[in-house]
Amino acid sequence: MSTLFDQFDVWGAFWMTIKLTVLAAVFSLVIGTVVAIMRLSPVPVLRFLGTSYVNVFRNTPLTLIVFFSLIGLWQTLGIELSAQLSVNAFRFAVIGLSVYHAAFVCEALRSGVNTIPLGQAEAARSIGLTFGQSLREIILPQAFRGAITPLGNTLIALAKNTTVVVTIGVAETAYLMSKVNEDAADQLTNVFILSAVFFVVLTIPIGLLTGRLSKKLAVKR
Amino acid sequence: MSDPSGATPQDTPGAPVPEDTAGVPEAASVPAQAAPGEPLVVMKGVNKHFGDLHVLKDIDLTVHRGEVVIVIGPSGSGKSTLCRTINRLETFESGSIEIDGKPLPEEGADLARLRADVGMVFQSFNLFAHKTILQNVTLGPIKVRKQSKEAAEKRAMELLARVGVDHQASKYPAQLSGGQQQRVAIARSLAMDPKVMLFDEPTSALDPEMITEVLDVMTSLAKEGMTMVVVTHEMGFANRAADRVVFMSDGAVLEQGTPKDFFTNPQTDRAKDFLGKILTH
Ligand SMILES: Nc1ncnc2c1ncn2[C@@H]1O[C@H](COP(=O)(O)OP(=O)(O)O)[C@@H](O)[C@H]1O
Ligand SMILES: [Mg+2]
Description:
Largest sheet of chain B: 6 strands, mixed
Order of helices and strands of chain A: HHHHHHHHHH
Radius of gyration of chain B: 18 Å
Membrane topology (chain A): Multi-pass membrane protein
Transmembrane segments (chain A): 12-38, 59-77, 89-109, 151-171, 191-211
Structural class of chain B: alpha/beta
Order of helices and strands of chain B: EEEHEEHEHHHEHEHEEHH
Keywords (chain A): Amino-acid transport, Cell membrane, Membrane, Transmembrane, Transmembrane helix, Transport
Oligomer: heterodimer
Helix content of chain A: over 70%
CATH superfamily of chain A: MetI-like
Number of strands of chain B: 10
Structural class of chain A: mainly alpha
Radius of gyration of chain A: 20 Å
Number of helices of chain B: 9
Shape of chain A: globular
CATH topology of chain A: MetI-like fold
Distance between the termini of chain A: 54 Å
Strand content of chain B: 15-25%
Number of strands of chain A: 0
InterPro entries (chain A): AA_ABC_transptr_permease_3TM (IPR010065), ArtM/GltK/GlnP/TcyL/YhdX-like (IPR043429), MetI-like (IPR000515), MetI-like_sf (IPR035906)
CATH architecture of chain A: Orthogonal Bundle
CATH class of chain A: Mainly Alpha
Subcellular location (chain A): Cell membrane
Shape of chain B: globular
Bound molecules: adenosine-5'-diphosphate, magnesium ion
Protein backbone atom coordinates (compact mmCIF):
# COMPACT_ATOMS: atom_id res chain seq x y z
CA MET A 1 0.00 0.00 0.00
CA SER A 2 2.75 2.44 0.91
CA THR A 3 4.45 1.83 -2.45
CA LEU A 4 1.20 2.90 -4.04
CA PHE A 5 1.36 6.22 -2.21
CA ASP A 6 5.10 6.54 -2.94
CA GLN A 7 4.79 5.81 -6.61
CA PHE A 8 1.56 7.66 -7.42
CA ASP A 9 -0.09 10.92 -6.46
CA VAL A 10 -3.11 9.26 -4.86
CA TRP A 11 -4.17 12.30 -2.82
CA GLY A 12 -3.78 14.53 -5.86
CA ALA A 13 -6.12 12.26 -7.82
CA PHE A 14 -8.73 12.24 -5.04
CA TRP A 15 -8.44 15.99 -4.66
CA MET A 16 -8.99 16.38 -8.40
CA THR A 17 -12.15 14.27 -8.18
CA ILE A 18 -13.42 16.47 -5.34
CA LYS A 19 -12.66 19.66 -7.28
CA LEU A 20 -14.45 18.33 -10.35
CA THR A 21 -17.45 17.32 -8.24
CA VAL A 22 -17.77 20.59 -6.36
CA LEU A 23 -17.25 22.89 -9.33
CA ALA A 24 -19.51 20.91 -11.65
CA ALA A 25 -22.12 20.75 -8.87
CA VAL A 26 -22.16 24.52 -8.54
CA PHE A 27 -22.25 25.18 -12.29
CA SER A 28 -24.83 22.50 -13.01
CA LEU A 29 -27.08 23.89 -10.27
CA VAL A 30 -26.86 27.34 -11.82
CA ILE A 31 -27.33 26.17 -15.41
CA GLY A 32 -30.03 23.68 -14.42
CA THR A 33 -31.97 26.39 -12.57
CA VAL A 34 -31.79 28.70 -15.58
CA VAL A 35 -32.99 25.91 -17.89
CA ALA A 36 -35.80 25.06 -15.45
CA ILE A 37 -36.88 28.72 -15.43
CA MET A 38 -36.90 28.66 -19.23
CA ARG A 39 -39.10 25.57 -19.18
CA LEU A 40 -41.51 27.26 -16.75
CA SER A 41 -41.62 30.59 -18.56
CA PRO A 42 -44.67 31.83 -20.43
CA VAL A 43 -42.52 32.54 -23.53
CA PRO A 44 -42.86 29.63 -26.01
CA VAL A 45 -39.40 30.15 -27.54
CA LEU A 46 -37.73 29.91 -24.12
CA ARG A 47 -39.76 26.85 -23.25
CA PHE A 48 -38.72 25.22 -26.52
CA LEU A 49 -35.05 26.02 -25.91
CA GLY A 50 -35.25 24.67 -22.37
CA THR A 51 -36.91 21.47 -23.49
CA SER A 52 -34.40 21.01 -26.30
CA TYR A 53 -31.53 21.51 -23.89
CA VAL A 54 -32.78 18.76 -21.62
CA ASN A 55 -33.50 16.39 -24.49
CA VAL A 56 -30.08 16.88 -26.04
CA PHE A 57 -27.91 16.71 -22.95
CA ARG A 58 -29.83 14.12 -21.00
CA ASN A 59 -29.84 11.71 -23.91
CA THR A 60 -26.24 12.07 -25.05
CA PRO A 61 -23.65 9.83 -23.35
CA LEU A 62 -21.52 11.81 -20.92
CA THR A 63 -18.34 10.46 -22.53
CA LEU A 64 -19.33 12.05 -25.83
CA ILE A 65 -20.16 15.37 -24.18
CA VAL A 66 -16.85 15.50 -22.31
CA PHE A 67 -14.95 14.41 -25.38
CA PHE A 68 -16.72 16.93 -27.56
CA SER A 69 -16.16 19.76 -25.11
CA LEU A 70 -12.40 19.24 -25.40
CA ILE A 71 -12.01 18.06 -29.00
CA GLY A 72 -14.84 20.10 -30.46
CA LEU A 73 -14.43 23.35 -28.60
CA TRP A 74 -10.69 23.35 -28.19
CA GLN A 75 -9.11 21.49 -31.09
CA THR A 76 -11.73 22.27 -33.73
CA LEU A 77 -13.04 25.68 -32.74
CA GLY A 78 -9.80 26.78 -31.12
CA ILE A 79 -11.35 27.92 -27.84
CA GLU A 80 -8.62 27.70 -25.23
CA LEU A 81 -9.39 28.01 -21.53
CA SER A 82 -5.83 27.87 -20.29
CA ALA A 83 -2.39 27.81 -21.87
CA GLN A 84 -1.48 25.01 -19.52
CA LEU A 85 -2.59 21.73 -21.07
CA SER A 86 -3.75 20.02 -17.87
CA VAL A 87 -5.66 23.07 -16.65
CA ASN A 88 -7.25 23.41 -20.07
CA ALA A 89 -8.45 19.80 -19.96
CA PHE A 90 -9.69 20.24 -16.38
CA ARG A 91 -11.77 23.27 -17.31
CA PHE A 92 -13.30 21.56 -20.31
CA ALA A 93 -14.05 18.59 -18.08
CA VAL A 94 -15.94 20.85 -15.67
CA ILE A 95 -17.90 22.31 -18.58
CA GLY A 96 -18.81 18.89 -19.94
CA LEU A 97 -19.87 17.59 -16.51
CA SER A 98 -21.84 20.76 -15.77
CA VAL A 99 -23.88 20.96 -18.97
CA TYR A 100 -24.71 17.25 -18.75
CA HIS A 101 -25.81 17.25 -15.11
CA ALA A 102 -27.65 20.55 -15.53
CA ALA A 103 -30.24 18.63 -17.54
CA PHE A 104 -30.83 16.37 -14.53
CA VAL A 105 -30.86 19.31 -12.12
CA CYS A 106 -33.51 20.92 -14.31
CA GLU A 107 -35.66 17.81 -14.21
CA ALA A 108 -35.18 17.45 -10.45
CA LEU A 109 -36.33 21.04 -10.01
CA ARG A 110 -39.31 20.44 -12.25
CA SER A 111 -40.30 17.51 -10.10
CA GLY A 112 -40.06 19.93 -7.18
CA VAL A 113 -42.29 22.40 -9.01
CA ASN A 114 -44.84 19.63 -9.48
CA THR A 115 -45.15 19.30 -5.70
CA ILE A 116 -46.45 22.90 -5.53
CA PRO A 117 -50.23 23.33 -5.73
CA LEU A 118 -51.37 25.56 -8.59
CA GLY A 119 -53.02 27.90 -6.10
CA GLN A 120 -49.61 29.10 -4.84
CA ALA A 121 -48.74 30.70 -8.18
CA GLU A 122 -52.27 32.06 -8.56
CA ALA A 123 -52.15 33.67 -5.13
CA ALA A 124 -48.77 35.16 -6.02
CA ARG A 125 -50.13 36.60 -9.25
CA SER A 126 -53.27 37.86 -7.57
CA ILE A 127 -51.34 40.05 -5.12
CA GLY A 128 -49.59 41.60 -8.10
CA LEU A 129 -46.23 39.83 -8.13
CA THR A 130 -44.67 39.75 -11.59
CA PHE A 131 -43.62 36.44 -13.14
CA GLY A 132 -40.05 36.93 -11.96
CA GLN A 133 -41.08 37.88 -8.45
CA SER A 134 -43.41 34.95 -8.05
CA LEU A 135 -40.66 32.66 -9.34
CA ARG A 136 -38.13 34.03 -6.86
CA GLU A 137 -40.39 34.37 -3.86
CA ILE A 138 -42.85 31.52 -4.19
CA ILE A 139 -42.09 28.91 -6.84
CA LEU A 140 -38.33 28.34 -6.72
CA PRO A 141 -37.98 28.29 -2.91
CA GLN A 142 -40.72 25.67 -2.68
CA ALA A 143 -39.39 23.79 -5.72
CA PHE A 144 -35.88 23.53 -4.22
CA ARG A 145 -37.27 22.26 -0.94
CA GLY A 146 -39.34 19.67 -2.76
CA ALA A 147 -36.41 18.68 -4.98
CA ILE A 148 -33.69 18.14 -2.39
CA THR A 149 -33.81 14.35 -2.61
CA PRO A 150 -33.63 14.13 -6.44
CA LEU A 151 -30.99 16.89 -6.40
CA GLY A 152 -28.99 14.76 -3.96
CA ASN A 153 -29.29 11.81 -6.31
CA THR A 154 -28.02 13.95 -9.16
CA LEU A 155 -25.10 15.10 -7.04
CA ILE A 156 -24.16 11.53 -6.14
CA ALA A 157 -24.36 10.52 -9.79
CA LEU A 158 -22.18 13.51 -10.65
CA ALA A 159 -19.51 12.52 -8.11
CA LYS A 160 -19.25 9.07 -9.64
CA ASN A 161 -19.56 10.32 -13.22
CA THR A 162 -16.44 12.45 -12.81
CA THR A 163 -14.52 9.25 -13.60
CA VAL A 164 -15.60 9.70 -17.22
CA VAL A 165 -13.24 12.64 -17.72
CA VAL A 166 -10.32 10.20 -17.72
CA THR A 167 -11.07 10.11 -21.46
CA ILE A 168 -9.62 13.59 -21.86
CA GLY A 169 -6.69 12.94 -19.56
CA VAL A 170 -7.67 14.76 -16.38
CA ALA A 171 -5.64 13.27 -13.53
CA GLU A 172 -8.53 12.19 -11.30
CA THR A 173 -9.30 8.87 -9.63
CA ALA A 174 -10.04 6.79 -12.74
CA TYR A 175 -6.88 8.19 -14.33
CA LEU A 176 -4.95 7.07 -11.27
CA MET A 177 -6.35 3.57 -11.63
CA SER A 178 -5.41 3.32 -15.29
CA LYS A 179 -1.90 4.57 -14.48
CA VAL A 180 -1.51 1.97 -11.74
CA ASN A 181 -2.77 -0.67 -14.14
CA GLU A 182 -0.08 0.27 -16.64
CA ASP A 183 2.88 0.92 -14.35
CA ALA A 184 2.37 -1.23 -11.23
CA ALA A 185 -0.13 -3.99 -11.90
CA ASP A 186 0.63 -5.61 -8.52
CA GLN A 187 -0.97 -2.61 -6.82
CA LEU A 188 -4.17 -2.86 -8.85
CA THR A 189 -6.33 -4.49 -6.14
CA ASN A 190 -5.14 -1.92 -3.63
CA VAL A 191 -5.99 1.04 -5.80
CA PHE A 192 -9.39 -0.42 -6.63
CA ILE A 193 -10.32 -0.92 -2.99
CA LEU A 194 -8.96 2.48 -2.03
CA SER A 195 -10.87 4.24 -4.80
CA ALA A 196 -14.08 2.42 -3.93
CA VAL A 197 -13.71 3.49 -0.29
CA PHE A 198 -12.98 7.03 -1.43
CA PHE A 199 -16.17 7.24 -3.48
CA VAL A 200 -18.25 5.77 -0.67
CA VAL A 201 -16.80 8.30 1.75
CA LEU A 202 -17.51 11.07 -0.76
CA THR A 203 -21.08 10.13 -1.63
CA ILE A 204 -22.59 8.76 1.59
CA PRO A 205 -22.50 12.14 3.33
CA ILE A 206 -24.24 13.70 0.30
CA GLY A 207 -27.07 11.20 0.69
CA LEU A 208 -27.28 11.65 4.46
CA LEU A 209 -27.16 15.41 4.27
CA THR A 210 -29.76 15.78 1.53
CA GLY A 211 -31.98 13.22 3.25
CA ARG A 212 -31.88 15.21 6.48
CA LEU A 213 -32.28 18.57 4.73
CA SER A 214 -35.24 17.38 2.73
CA LYS A 215 -37.00 16.37 5.95
CA LYS A 216 -36.06 19.52 7.77
CA LEU A 217 -36.99 21.91 4.95
CA ALA A 218 -40.06 20.05 3.71
CA VAL A 219 -42.91 22.48 3.08
CA LYS A 220 -45.83 21.52 5.31
CA ARG A 221 -49.14 21.83 3.52
CA MET B 1 -56.60 55.47 -3.97
CA SER B 2 -55.73 55.18 -7.62
CA ASP B 3 -52.10 55.08 -8.60
CA PRO B 4 -51.21 58.65 -9.53
CA SER B 5 -49.19 57.52 -12.54
CA GLY B 6 -52.25 55.79 -13.86
CA ALA B 7 -54.52 58.80 -13.45
CA THR B 8 -55.90 59.33 -16.92
CA PRO B 9 -58.45 61.99 -17.91
CA GLN B 10 -61.29 59.48 -18.01
CA ASP B 11 -60.63 58.76 -14.34
CA THR B 12 -62.21 62.02 -13.36
CA PRO B 13 -65.45 62.50 -15.23
CA GLY B 14 -66.82 64.87 -12.62
CA ALA B 15 -65.16 66.91 -9.94
CA PRO B 16 -63.29 64.81 -7.42
CA VAL B 17 -65.91 63.49 -5.07
CA PRO B 18 -65.06 63.83 -1.40
CA GLU B 19 -64.60 60.58 0.41
CA ASP B 20 -67.74 59.41 2.09
CA THR B 21 -66.62 58.37 5.49
CA ALA B 22 -69.99 58.64 7.17
CA GLY B 23 -71.04 55.31 8.58
CA VAL B 24 -67.56 53.94 8.14
CA PRO B 25 -66.41 53.71 11.74
CA GLU B 26 -63.22 51.74 11.13
CA ALA B 27 -62.25 53.45 7.92
CA ALA B 28 -58.66 53.71 9.06
CA SER B 29 -58.10 49.99 8.79
CA VAL B 30 -59.63 49.62 5.37
CA PRO B 31 -58.76 51.50 2.20
CA ALA B 32 -60.95 54.52 1.89
CA GLN B 33 -63.54 54.15 -0.81
CA ALA B 34 -63.73 57.27 -2.90
CA ALA B 35 -66.87 58.24 -4.74
CA PRO B 36 -69.33 55.55 -3.75
CA GLY B 37 -71.75 54.51 -6.44
CA GLU B 38 -69.45 54.98 -9.46
CA PRO B 39 -68.96 51.92 -11.64
CA LEU B 40 -65.77 50.16 -10.52
CA VAL B 41 -65.84 46.83 -12.32
CA VAL B 42 -67.56 46.90 -15.71
CA MET B 43 -67.91 43.69 -17.72
CA LYS B 44 -69.45 44.03 -21.17
CA GLY B 45 -70.35 41.12 -23.41
CA VAL B 46 -67.68 38.85 -21.96
CA ASN B 47 -67.41 35.43 -23.56
CA LYS B 48 -65.12 32.62 -22.60
CA HIS B 49 -64.71 29.03 -23.71
CA PHE B 50 -62.81 26.08 -22.29
CA GLY B 51 -62.42 24.16 -25.53
CA ASP B 52 -65.96 23.49 -26.70
CA LEU B 53 -67.48 24.48 -23.38
CA HIS B 54 -68.98 27.98 -23.40
CA VAL B 55 -68.35 28.91 -19.74
CA LEU B 56 -69.18 32.61 -19.84
CA LYS B 57 -71.95 33.71 -22.18
CA ASP B 58 -72.21 37.42 -22.95
CA ILE B 59 -71.71 38.51 -19.36
CA ASP B 60 -72.73 42.11 -18.64
CA LEU B 61 -72.06 43.00 -15.05
CA THR B 62 -71.29 46.27 -13.33
CA VAL B 63 -70.12 46.47 -9.76
CA HIS B 64 -70.26 49.90 -8.20
CA ARG B 65 -67.90 51.31 -5.65
CA GLY B 66 -68.84 50.20 -2.18
CA GLU B 67 -71.26 47.62 -3.51
CA VAL B 68 -71.38 44.03 -2.29
CA VAL B 69 -72.47 41.62 -5.00
CA ILE B 70 -73.20 37.98 -4.27
CA VAL B 71 -72.82 35.51 -7.11
CA ILE B 72 -74.89 32.39 -6.68
CA GLY B 73 -75.73 29.45 -8.90
CA PRO B 74 -75.36 25.73 -9.43
CA SER B 75 -71.95 24.08 -9.45
CA GLY B 76 -70.30 24.40 -12.85
CA SER B 77 -72.29 27.46 -13.82
CA GLY B 78 -69.14 29.58 -14.23
CA LYS B 79 -69.00 31.52 -10.96
CA SER B 80 -65.34 30.82 -10.29
CA THR B 81 -64.44 31.53 -13.89
CA LEU B 82 -66.26 34.87 -13.66
CA CYS B 83 -64.20 35.85 -10.61
CA ARG B 84 -61.00 34.67 -12.19
CA THR B 85 -61.54 36.60 -15.42
CA ILE B 86 -62.01 39.81 -13.44
CA ASN B 87 -58.36 39.75 -12.38
CA ARG B 88 -57.34 37.87 -15.48
CA LEU B 89 -56.27 34.62 -13.91
CA GLU B 90 -58.32 33.44 -16.90
CA THR B 91 -58.29 35.00 -20.34
CA PHE B 92 -61.47 35.64 -22.29
CA GLU B 93 -62.16 35.77 -26.01
CA SER B 94 -64.52 38.66 -26.56
CA GLY B 95 -66.07 41.53 -24.69
CA SER B 96 -64.35 43.92 -22.32
CA ILE B 97 -63.60 44.28 -18.64
CA GLU B 98 -62.72 47.62 -17.11
CA ILE B 99 -61.54 48.21 -13.58
CA ASP B 100 -61.86 51.76 -12.33
CA GLY B 101 -62.14 53.07 -15.89
CA LYS B 102 -59.15 51.19 -17.25
CA PRO B 103 -59.39 48.13 -19.48
CA LEU B 104 -57.67 44.98 -18.28
CA PRO B 105 -54.10 44.92 -19.59
CA GLU B 106 -53.05 41.90 -21.62
CA GLU B 107 -49.92 40.76 -19.82
CA GLY B 108 -46.78 41.90 -18.09
CA ALA B 109 -46.15 44.65 -15.58
CA ASP B 110 -49.41 46.52 -16.25
CA LEU B 111 -51.41 43.42 -15.52
CA ALA B 112 -49.46 42.78 -12.32
CA ARG B 113 -50.22 46.34 -11.22
CA LEU B 114 -53.90 45.85 -11.90
CA ARG B 115 -53.98 42.60 -9.98
CA ALA B 116 -52.48 44.36 -7.00
CA ASP B 117 -55.62 46.52 -6.94
CA VAL B 118 -57.95 43.54 -7.10
CA GLY B 119 -57.91 41.35 -4.00
CA MET B 120 -58.68 37.67 -4.38
CA VAL B 121 -59.64 35.22 -1.67
CA PHE B 122 -59.69 31.59 -2.74
CA GLN B 123 -61.71 28.64 -1.56
CA SER B 124 -58.50 26.81 -0.62
CA PHE B 125 -56.86 29.88 1.06
CA ASN B 126 -53.62 29.47 -0.91
CA LEU B 127 -51.40 30.98 1.75
CA PHE B 128 -47.73 30.76 0.80
CA ALA B 129 -46.82 27.51 2.51
CA HIS B 130 -43.12 28.23 3.08
CA LYS B 131 -43.64 31.68 4.56
CA THR B 132 -44.83 32.70 8.01
CA ILE B 133 -48.22 34.32 8.51
CA LEU B 134 -46.55 37.72 8.86
CA GLN B 135 -44.47 37.18 5.70
CA ASN B 136 -47.59 36.14 3.82
CA VAL B 137 -49.17 39.48 4.61
CA THR B 138 -46.09 41.68 4.07
CA LEU B 139 -44.85 40.11 0.82
CA GLY B 140 -47.13 42.09 -1.50
CA PRO B 141 -46.74 45.45 0.25
CA ILE B 142 -42.93 45.08 0.24
CA LYS B 143 -42.42 43.64 -3.27
CA VAL B 144 -45.29 45.29 -5.13
CA ARG B 145 -46.10 48.46 -3.19
CA LYS B 146 -42.41 48.99 -2.31
CA GLN B 147 -43.18 49.72 1.33
CA SER B 148 -40.42 49.47 3.90
CA LYS B 149 -40.29 46.24 5.88
CA GLU B 150 -41.10 48.09 9.11
CA ALA B 151 -44.12 49.90 7.68
CA ALA B 152 -45.41 46.72 6.04
CA GLU B 153 -45.01 44.72 9.25
CA LYS B 154 -46.73 47.35 11.34
CA ARG B 155 -49.70 47.45 9.00
CA ALA B 156 -49.73 43.64 8.71
CA MET B 157 -49.92 43.27 12.48
CA GLU B 158 -52.84 45.72 12.57
CA LEU B 159 -54.64 43.74 9.91
CA LEU B 160 -53.88 40.42 11.59
CA ALA B 161 -55.22 41.81 14.86
CA ARG B 162 -58.28 42.96 13.05
CA VAL B 163 -59.01 39.45 11.73
CA GLY B 164 -58.01 37.95 15.09
CA VAL B 165 -54.88 36.00 14.18
CA ASP B 166 -52.14 38.37 15.36
CA HIS B 167 -50.99 35.82 17.94
CA GLN B 168 -50.13 33.39 15.15
CA ALA B 169 -47.96 35.85 13.19
CA SER B 170 -44.77 33.82 13.41
CA LYS B 171 -46.38 30.45 12.64
CA TYR B 172 -46.61 28.75 9.26
CA PRO B 173 -49.93 28.30 7.45
CA ALA B 174 -50.07 24.53 8.04
CA GLN B 175 -50.08 25.21 11.81
CA LEU B 176 -53.34 27.17 11.60
CA SER B 177 -56.93 26.01 11.34
CA GLY B 178 -58.78 26.53 8.07
CA GLY B 179 -60.75 29.42 9.48
CA GLN B 180 -57.58 31.13 10.70
CA GLN B 181 -55.88 30.56 7.34
CA GLN B 182 -58.78 32.10 5.49
CA ARG B 183 -58.75 35.14 7.77
CA VAL B 184 -55.03 35.51 7.09
CA ALA B 185 -55.78 35.30 3.38
CA ILE B 186 -58.24 38.16 3.80
CA ALA B 187 -55.62 40.17 5.69
CA ARG B 188 -53.11 39.44 2.91
CA SER B 189 -55.53 40.87 0.37
CA LEU B 190 -56.38 43.88 2.52
CA ALA B 191 -52.71 44.72 2.94
CA MET B 192 -52.61 45.65 -0.74
CA ASP B 193 -55.37 48.26 -0.24
CA PRO B 194 -57.42 46.74 -3.04
CA LYS B 195 -60.12 48.67 -4.84
CA VAL B 196 -62.28 45.59 -5.00
CA MET B 197 -62.11 42.16 -3.41
CA LEU B 198 -63.19 38.92 -5.02
CA PHE B 199 -64.15 35.97 -2.83
CA ASP B 200 -64.56 32.57 -4.48
CA GLU B 201 -66.52 30.35 -2.09
CA PRO B 202 -64.37 31.49 0.86
CA THR B 203 -66.15 29.28 3.39
CA SER B 204 -66.90 26.12 1.46
CA ALA B 205 -63.66 24.38 2.45
CA LEU B 206 -64.25 25.14 6.13
CA ASP B 207 -65.69 23.10 8.95
CA PRO B 208 -69.06 24.51 10.02
CA GLU B 209 -67.77 25.97 13.29
CA MET B 210 -65.23 28.09 11.41
CA ILE B 211 -67.57 29.53 8.82
CA THR B 212 -68.95 32.19 11.14
CA GLU B 213 -65.56 33.62 12.06
CA VAL B 214 -64.75 34.19 8.39
CA LEU B 215 -68.19 35.54 7.51
CA ASP B 216 -67.98 37.95 10.45
CA VAL B 217 -64.80 39.45 9.03
CA MET B 218 -66.39 39.72 5.60
CA THR B 219 -69.53 41.31 7.02
CA SER B 220 -67.51 43.99 8.78
CA LEU B 221 -65.60 44.69 5.55
CA ALA B 222 -68.90 45.06 3.72
CA LYS B 223 -70.19 47.44 6.40
CA GLU B 224 -67.09 49.57 6.05
CA GLY B 225 -67.71 50.11 2.39
CA MET B 226 -65.36 47.63 0.73
CA THR B 227 -66.39 46.77 -2.81
CA MET B 228 -66.88 43.01 -2.90
CA VAL B 229 -67.84 40.27 -5.31
CA VAL B 230 -68.58 37.13 -3.32
CA VAL B 231 -69.36 33.69 -4.68
CA THR B 232 -71.15 31.97 -1.83
CA HIS B 233 -74.20 30.00 -0.92
CA GLU B 234 -74.32 31.45 2.58
CA MET B 235 -77.78 33.00 2.51
CA GLY B 236 -77.43 34.52 5.97
CA PHE B 237 -74.40 36.45 4.83
CA ALA B 238 -76.14 37.46 1.61
CA ASN B 239 -79.09 38.83 3.53
CA ARG B 240 -76.90 40.63 6.02
CA ALA B 241 -74.26 42.12 3.80
CA ALA B 242 -75.23 42.06 0.13
CA ASP B 243 -76.62 44.88 -1.94
CA ARG B 244 -77.34 42.62 -4.87
CA VAL B 245 -77.56 38.95 -5.72
CA VAL B 246 -76.57 37.76 -9.18
CA PHE B 247 -77.84 34.34 -10.22
CA MET B 248 -75.76 32.42 -12.77
CA SER B 249 -76.67 29.28 -14.60
CA ASP B 250 -74.83 27.59 -17.47
CA GLY B 251 -72.45 30.49 -17.92
CA ALA B 252 -75.07 33.23 -18.14
CA VAL B 253 -76.44 35.75 -15.66
CA LEU B 254 -80.10 34.75 -15.50
CA GLU B 255 -81.38 37.29 -13.02
CA GLN B 256 -80.28 39.74 -10.36
CA GLY B 257 -81.88 41.72 -7.61
CA THR B 258 -81.73 42.65 -3.95
CA PRO B 259 -81.24 39.68 -1.64
CA LYS B 260 -84.77 40.07 -0.31
CA ASP B 261 -86.36 40.12 -3.77
CA PHE B 262 -84.23 37.31 -5.10
CA PHE B 263 -84.64 34.93 -2.19
CA THR B 264 -88.33 35.53 -1.63
CA ASN B 265 -89.46 36.09 -5.19
CA PRO B 266 -87.14 34.55 -7.79
CA GLN B 267 -88.27 35.18 -11.37
CA THR B 268 -86.79 32.34 -13.42
CA ASP B 269 -87.65 28.67 -13.07
CA ARG B 270 -83.99 27.78 -12.74
CA ALA B 271 -83.51 30.17 -9.84
CA LYS B 272 -86.64 28.79 -8.16
CA ASP B 273 -85.40 25.27 -8.71
CA PHE B 274 -81.93 26.12 -7.39
CA LEU B 275 -83.22 27.93 -4.31
CA GLY B 276 -85.55 25.03 -3.61
CA LYS B 277 -82.57 22.71 -3.58
CA ILE B 278 -80.29 24.75 -1.34
CA LEU B 279 -83.11 25.67 1.06
CA THR B 280 -84.21 22.11 1.65
CA HIS B 281 -80.69 21.20 2.78
N1 LIG C 1 -59.33 25.12 -16.39
C1 LIG C 1 -60.44 24.56 -16.90
N2 LIG C 1 -60.38 23.81 -18.02
C2 LIG C 1 -61.50 23.26 -18.55
N3 LIG C 1 -62.71 23.41 -18.04
C3 LIG C 1 -62.84 24.15 -16.93
C4 LIG C 1 -61.72 24.75 -16.29
N4 LIG C 1 -62.14 25.43 -15.20
C5 LIG C 1 -63.46 25.24 -15.16
N5 LIG C 1 -63.89 24.48 -16.18
C6 LIG C 1 -65.29 24.13 -16.47
O1 LIG C 1 -66.01 25.31 -16.63
C7 LIG C 1 -67.28 25.22 -16.04
C8 LIG C 1 -67.47 26.33 -15.04
O2 LIG C 1 -66.58 26.12 -13.97
P1 LIG C 1 -66.53 27.06 -12.70
O3 LIG C 1 -66.35 28.45 -13.15
O4 LIG C 1 -65.51 26.50 -11.80
O5 LIG C 1 -67.98 26.87 -12.11
P2 LIG C 1 -68.51 27.15 -10.64
O6 LIG C 1 -67.48 27.93 -9.90
O7 LIG C 1 -69.78 27.90 -10.84
O8 LIG C 1 -68.77 25.81 -10.02
C9 LIG C 1 -67.37 23.83 -15.44
O9 LIG C 1 -68.07 23.00 -16.33
C10 LIG C 1 -65.95 23.41 -15.30
O10 LIG C 1 -65.83 22.03 -15.42
MG1 LIG D 1 -66.39 27.44 -8.17
